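> example.struct
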């Protein structure tokens, strides 16, 4: 039985004592159900709006997030809005069934945008590299597809090998039912906390390593290995990542995944699994989060390539990523190119003119102490060099020119500057190991002269990533140090290892004693826009922990303190989600969630069929739930009024305030139709009321008859509008109270407002919501009042949103004492903003109004929160 029906039955039924008691019990039960539905609706509204605000924050790039965050928030919002629709229909005897249709349609649109793209046709599990070109990038990843493409279409030499495809990866994941568990673990982890990411990384890698390959995948891998082994006795393999999206423009994944060298047959399957598990290395997960790349859209393909017995190896850039655009840059080390890209060695660097590639324009040779070679048992080893070997370049000029010509040819072929990894074998042949596009916008900024008065601490090394940054020095010597990196720090390391990449998004700059422009860490620093100087000797000894320094990477120098003149060249740090896959998906989803189109409840457009977003539905449900809850006008003479709804009596006056007890809001069983404050056990209501009464309202200040419409002028001078008057002109105002909860619906001088507050022992559940709308003056004056109020509320810790003449403010997770103080503030604002829109006649009056509010609030807060105001 509905609440209204229960009350009507009182008058239709028996008036004997037993019948009245039975009907009263029906009313009590029905009213309790209404209160339960109303509070549940408000709670769902709070959770939905909180989740919406987190999506808006994510859209601004103020936090790191992944696809799991987007899906979780969208699910949270949709579920809570659905509950609001359900509770509103319970309150209204199914008065708004169209809302179910609207939320179903909107939810479906959101789901289509955010749902994992899991429908793939299963292709070949393994492919021979000589069968691969770029048309198969969706199966082999860009790294392996590019290699196959270069061989087939240009004719360059690449290693023999095969690729475990995206289909092979999915077969492995599906055979072990891994994806759902991986998604669950990611979803419950705060990816913005590095210690949590370390723990997640360990658990996910263990999960993958403990899962077996299905028999069909194992058979395919070993069959391809045997074909290769027949052609190459004593075959050893380099097992390399080639994830979908790796080496994509703007997202190189440089050094984020694992590569293993010198792998024999008996270790092959476990090594492939290790490379797959490296998808969940801390560096890789942090990189995907920073670049806004969905985890479940990155299948891990694995390339298995014949090892190259390298005399020299390295990287060639067709365009200098940190210097002049007139040159290609060849970076080389003796032996395998691993030492170039992992930042463990200094380099020979050759600069080759792009316009005249037969001419060497510059060559830098740094002393080296070792070369990296493959070793059958250890994988790779460091072999010491003699002093004579260390002083000689590992390439001759002709080889450097040939490498530059190859890179320039790749640039023409792909239409983008290229980063090419290469090796030269013992026969002197150049073998291409990888080619990927350089990010857009690479290139060094113009160096600036040393500003007058600046103190130079260090100079030298190479510019690994251009720009300038400032911050306190922080030394990283081991992985555990990464957990303590604070935002804006200048990182100082000995070697430019790729494993430091997860903390680059927090840094303002990075300095390394070793490493060069070709390393993985340098690539990631350039993508993030983090200024970097590598190869800077004595950096660790010279730069002391916590000292404030400015890094001028373009001029490869470190200056003492903050040098403002250089910081104009600084690039934006941290995650840049704009244009990333996750950001694009979020942008599409938010269109169906956040915009608020239903603003004016008096408009004919304020109807279920006009709800176009989930925010529209929350607004409609909240507004209509209040109407349903306070349909009390016809019930004043019923048993309901005798027991649950009371008119407020203050100092002998009967006010146009009605108090509805949800359950435990009254201190005693009040049988009279009137109630006094000392009979109400609701601290939030008492705090709000005290703020309303603290300072008498004297009407709008600074106003003249010229500034008012006649109605406003008449109202402003009418003392009937005083809060303690039993006004005949004021619209009824309602308090809904419980022990720790208060909801006020009120109209004051041509504006309507709502205050909803919870102030109990559980801090995480406490909150205040405040809504304010309307006025009698023109829109320009109403906006001046609203904006002044917004400034004051923000200063007092509220999160504020203003749309036209409607203001919404909220504060969350408050200590009870803090919540009560803020209710004092709101109580004061409720009274002292009445009709002030009519008094706004320019910026001076707005400023004066805001200052007056600040002074009044200071006086109110100085009085403290009284437990009772009777």
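> example.seq
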């Amino acid at each position: 039985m509905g609440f209204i029906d229960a009350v009507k039955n009182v008058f239709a039924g028996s008036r004997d004592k037993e019948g009245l008691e039975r009907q009263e019990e029906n009313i009590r039960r029905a009213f309790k159900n209404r209160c339960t539905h109303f509070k549940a609706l408000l709670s769902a509204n709070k959770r939905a709006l909180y989740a919406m605000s987190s999506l808006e924050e994510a859209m601004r790039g103020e936090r790191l997030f992944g696809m799991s965050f987007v899906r979780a928030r969208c699910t949270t919002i949709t579920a809570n809005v659905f509950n609001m629709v359900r509770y509103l229909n319970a309150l209204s005897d199914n008065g708004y069934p169209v809302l179910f249709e609207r939320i179903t349609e909107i939810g479906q649109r959101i789901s289509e945008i955010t749902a994992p793209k899991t429908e793939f046709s299963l292709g070949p599990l393994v492919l021979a590299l000589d069968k691969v070109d770029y048309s198969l990038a969706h199966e082999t990843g860009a790294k392996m597809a590019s290699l196959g493409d270069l061989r087939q279409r240009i004719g360059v030499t690449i290693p023999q090998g095969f690729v475990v495809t995206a289909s092979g990866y999915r077969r492995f994941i599906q055979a072990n039912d891994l994806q759902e568990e991986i998604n669950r673990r990611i979803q419950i982890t705060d990816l913005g906390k590095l210690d949590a990411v370390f723990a997640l990384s360990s658990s996910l890698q263990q999960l993958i390593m403990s899962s077996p390959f299905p028999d069909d995948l194992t058979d395919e891998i070993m069959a391809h290995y045997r074909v290769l082994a027949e052609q190459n006795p004593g075959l050893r393999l380099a097992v390399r990542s080639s994830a979908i999206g790796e080496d994509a423009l703007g997202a190189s994944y440089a050094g984020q995944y694992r590569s293993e060298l010198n792998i024999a047959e008996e270790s092959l399957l476990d090594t492939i699994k290790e490379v797959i598990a490296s998808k969940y290395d801390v560096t890789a997960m942090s990189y995907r989060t920073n670049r806004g790349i969905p985890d479940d859209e990155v299948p891990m393909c694995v390339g298995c390539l014949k090892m190259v017995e390298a005399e020299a190896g390295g990287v060639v850039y067709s365009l200098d990523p940190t210097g002049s655009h007139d040159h290609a840059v060849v970076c080389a080390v003796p032996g395998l190119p691993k030492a170039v890209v992992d930042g463990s060695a200094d380099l020979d660097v050759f600069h080759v003119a792009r316009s005249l590639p037969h001419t060497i324009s510059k060559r830098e040779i740094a002393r080296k102490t070792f070369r990296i070679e493959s070793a059958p048992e250890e994988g790779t080893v460091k072999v010491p060099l003699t002093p004579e070997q260390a002083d000689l370049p590992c390439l001759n000029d002709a080889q450097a020119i040939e490498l530059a010509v190859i890179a320039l040819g790749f640039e023409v072929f792909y239409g983008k500057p290229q980063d090419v990894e290469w090796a030269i074998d013992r026969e002197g042949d150049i073998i291409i190991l990888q080619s990927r596009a350089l990010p857009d916008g690479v290139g060094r900024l113009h160096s600036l002269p040393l500003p007058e008065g600046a103190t130079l601490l260090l100079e030298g090394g190479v510019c690994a990533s251009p720009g300038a940054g400032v911050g306190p020095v922080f030394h990283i010597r081991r992985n555990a140090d990464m957990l303590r990196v604070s935002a804006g720090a200048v990182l100082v390391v000995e070697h430019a290892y790729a494993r430091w990449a997860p903390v680059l998004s927090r840094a303002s700059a990075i300095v390394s004693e070793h490493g060069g422009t070709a390393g993985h860490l340098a690539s990631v620093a350039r993508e993030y826009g983090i200024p970097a100087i590598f190869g800077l000797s004595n950096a660790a000894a010279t730069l002391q922990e916590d000292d404030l320094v400015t890094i001028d990477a373009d001029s490869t120098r470190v200056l003492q303190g903050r040098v403002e003149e250089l910081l104009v060249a600084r690039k934006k740090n941290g995650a840049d989600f704009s244009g990333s896959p996750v950001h694009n998906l979020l942008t599409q989803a938010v269109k169906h969630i956040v915009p608020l189109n239903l603003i004016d409840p008096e408009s004919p457009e304020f109807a279920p069929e006009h709800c176009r977003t989930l925010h529209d539905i929350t607004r409609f449900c909240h507004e209509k739930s209040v109407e349903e809850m306070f349909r009390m006008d016809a019930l004043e003479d019923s048993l309901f009024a005798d027991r649950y709804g009371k008119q407020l009596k203050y100092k002998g006056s009967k006010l146009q305030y009605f108090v509805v007890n949800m359950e435990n809001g009254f201190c005693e069983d009040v049988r009279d139709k009137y109630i006094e404050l000392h009979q109400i056990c609701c601290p939030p209501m008492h705090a709000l009321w005290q703020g309303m009464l603290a300072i008498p309202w004297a009407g709008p200040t600074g106003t003249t008859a010229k500034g008012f419409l006649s109605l406003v002028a008449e109202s402003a001078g009418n003392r009937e509008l005083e809060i303690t008057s039993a006004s005949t002109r004021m619209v009824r105002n309602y308090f809904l109270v419980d022990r720790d909860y208060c909801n006020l619906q009120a109209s004051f001088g041509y504006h309507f407002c709502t205050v909803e507050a919870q102030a109990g022992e559980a801090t995480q559940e406490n909150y205040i919501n405040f809504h304010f709308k309307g006025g009698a003056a023109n829109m320009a004056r109403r906006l001046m009042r609203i904006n002044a109020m917004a400034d004051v509320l923000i200063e007092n810790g509220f999160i504020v949103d203003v749309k036209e003449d409607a203001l919404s403010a909220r504060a969350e997770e408050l200590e009870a004492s803090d919540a009560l103080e803020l209710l004092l503030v709101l109580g004061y604002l409720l009274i002292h903003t009445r009709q002030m829109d009519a008094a706004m006649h320019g910026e001076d009056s707005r400023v004066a109004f805001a200052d007056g509010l600040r002074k009044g609030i200071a006086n109110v807060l100085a009085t403290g929160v009284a437990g009772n105001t009777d």
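> remarks
The longest helix spans residues 17-59.
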